[in-house]
Design goal:
Layout lengths: L6 E4 L2 H11 L7 E6 L5 H13 L2 E6 L9 H6 L4 H11 L2 E4 L3 H4 L18 H5 L3 H16 L3 E5 L3 H13 L5 E5 L19 H6 L1 H15 L4 H12 L5 E9 L14 E9 L2 E8 L1
Parallel strand pairs: 1-4, 2-3, 2-5, 3-4, 5-6
Antiparallel strand pairs: 7-8, 8-9
Helix pairs in contact: 7-8, 10-11
The structure holds pantoate (PAF).
The site of pantoate (PAF) has 10 residues, from strand 2 and helix 7.
Length: 286
């Protein structure tokens, strides 16, 4: 495969270890880490750009993690576009792309022992994708152990994932700063996602009901409706669309507990829906 300039591809854990040992001979050297499953879009590139600005070296992992897919069809349909990913990364600056094998990430002497996620995985994605977050926590834990970064970058689009990774990071006392980055949207408001390439133009248009519902929710809060009333109205609005709603939920941004009568100081509205054959998620904090 052609390897564009400025991109160093490291395809094994042992090569990564050697590279990190070289960096760490300078104790003040900082490493930023952007874990991805590839099929990169502008949202990922923003994370990498920020990591490049804030660190001496940046590792971007590309690994489609089988343990976080509860649906085998979703795993096999997940886009794999390594050549294009490398090209995109080469345009934004210098970084190291880590493309580990399954055995690198899940070795026989696997360092991860499952942890209790304190109910953070009980609702929303956790409810609709059983086992998903254990898979995410497992892979991110093992990647953190391999990359040993100072900072790791995650998008706010995966709101519940971010909260769970923060929890895992402090549970294991990793000396890693978790940096949360804003959701990047198309000009019409559709949140960028690797899955969007599987949407037809018509479905992309239909999917705008997600952002419309999130803004409607914000407006209903500002108009003084209770969380329950606002949720009921938004669900009704959403259900006029062609998408199949899985959940539209208001939660406290910190605890992820559902809101009933009172708004929190920081509330997040989270949505997941099926748009044709593609599952989409999004959220808005207000
Ligand atoms: O957000 C993702 O792309 C994945 O869940 C992650 C964090 C790379 C783990 O596989």
């Amino acid at each position: 495969m052609e390897n564009p300039d400025k991109i160093n591809v490291i395809s094994s854990a042992s090569d990564l270890k050697q590279q990190i040992a070289i960096w760490k001979t300078n104790p003040s050297c900082t490493v930023g880490f952007v874990p991805t499953m590839g099929a990169l879009h502008e949202g990922h590139l923003k994370l990498v750009e920020k990591a490049i600005q804030e660190n001496d070296f940046v590792v971007v992992s590309i690994f489609v993690n089988p343990t976080q897919f509860n649906n085998p069809a979703d795993l096999s349909l997940y886009p794999r576009t390594l050549e294009n990913d490398l090209l995109l990364l080469s345009k934004i600056g210098s970084c190291f792309v880590f493309t580990p094998s399954i055995i690198d990430v899940y070795p026989e002497n696997d360092p991860y022992k499952p942890i209790h996620l304190q109910g953070l995985d009980a609702t929303m994605e956790g409810e609709f994708r059983p086992g998903h977050f254990q898979g995410v926590v497992h892979v991110v834990h093992n990647l953190f152990n391999l990359v040993l970064p100072n900072k790791a970058y995650f998008g706010k689009k995966d709101f519940q994932q971010l909260a769970i990774i923060r929890f895992m990071n402090s549970y294991f006392h990793f000396p890693i700063e978790i940096v949360a980055c804003e959701t990047i949207r198309e000009s019409n408001g559709l949140a960028m996602s690797s899955r969007n390439v599987r949407l037809s133009d018509e479905e992309k248009n239909d999917a705008l009901v997600i952002i419309d519902s999130l803004y409607l929710m914000k407006e209903l809060k500002e108009n003084g409706l209770s969380p329950t009333e606002a949720e009921r109205k938004c669900i009704w609005f959403f259900n006029q669309s062609n998408l199949k709603l899985e959940y539209l939920t208001l939660v406290d941004s910190e605890t992820l507990k559902p809101l009933l009568t009172e708004w929190s100081t920081k509330t997040t509205c989270c949505i997941a829906a099926q748009c044709g054959a593609v599952r989409l998620i999004d959220n808005l904090e207000f």
